[in-house]
Description:
By secondary structure, the protein is α/β, with parallel strands linked by helices. The protein has helices at 38-52, 86-96, 108-114, 116-124, 165-168, 174-179, 195-213, 228-231, 238-244, 246-249, 264-284; strands spanning 58-62, 77-80, 101-107, 130-135, 138-139, 145-146, 184-191, 218-224, 253-257, 260-261.
Amino acid sequence: MTIIDTSSAPTVPARKVESLKPDLLLTQEHHMCPGCGEPLAVRQFLECIEELDVAARTIAVAGIGCYTSFAGTMDVDLVQALHGRAPSVATGVKRMLPDSLVFTLQGDGDMVNEGLQEVLHTAARGEKVTCILLNNGVFGETGGHMTATSVIGQRTKNTLDGRDAEYHGYPILIGDLIAQLQGASYVARGSVHNAGSVARTRKMFKRAFESQLRGEGFTFVEVLTMCPTGWFVPTADGPDYMQETLGEVHIMGELKVDGRVRTTDELHAENVAKQREIDEQLARGGIEN
Ligand SMILES: Cc1ncc(C[n+]2csc(CCOP(=O)(O)OP(=O)(O)O)c2C)c(N)n1
Ligand code: SF4
Ligand SMILES: [Mg+2]
């Protein structure tokens, strides 16, 4: 556990953040909008793959959305799937190469709108793959339209007065739904709207990958990500807006661990405790690993 002392000048020379990028990230640059949450999530799981030393046997299966552009910048083998079909492609890859670490990279539009049945059946079958969902509550790439995960009242390109349950229906809480399926062994929902959440999300990726490598069943990590462009909010408002909209409905936390589904009340209580812990660490000088 490292606490960085900020009460005096550092004894080692400063390094640019970009020099700390994981080796599996081939470039320090990305094509995403300023304030996009997706690169933060991608970096976290790439660091976990490095830490687990499984890069040479990792195969990603990409869906179609803004995150598809990472196909060219992640140094792992990758298969491109059609819209929503990544879990089925991942099933085939894993069955042919059972020693591989196989994960999908999908968005809410791709996974929960266009390919909902694919991920549900894959989870129910207990396929030993990890599905990663970058959930920003909109079809970001196509201009910010409502998806099945947009929350009630959320303004999107085609719900200008906010999502109305009467007319548009209710959001699907996909992580909660998957946690109910017997084939799912580990299900978690993280976020990247502040440093503490990024650190928690990273642990979720690591636990999901470790569970897959132990052959325990289907694993799922959903990450709430900022999309200021698709939400039509100023870049700097993205993290707070995310917490106040998606974050209030899609509750962060480990939804299923060792086969046990955790209640929303449990997650709320844990979130309050974790936030207190993080605030105390920040007051002491920095977030501990
Ligand atoms: C068959 C088909 N339908 C729709 C589209 C347009 N399209 C491209 S990406 C995308 C979805 C992106 O949404 P999401 O998966 O949430 O990813 P995000 O861009 O928000 O990260 C859509 C609808 C398409 N290319 N082909
Ligand atoms: S549209 Fe949204 S998800 Fe896509 S790159 Fe921009 S901020 Fe990110
Ligand atoms: Mg999306």
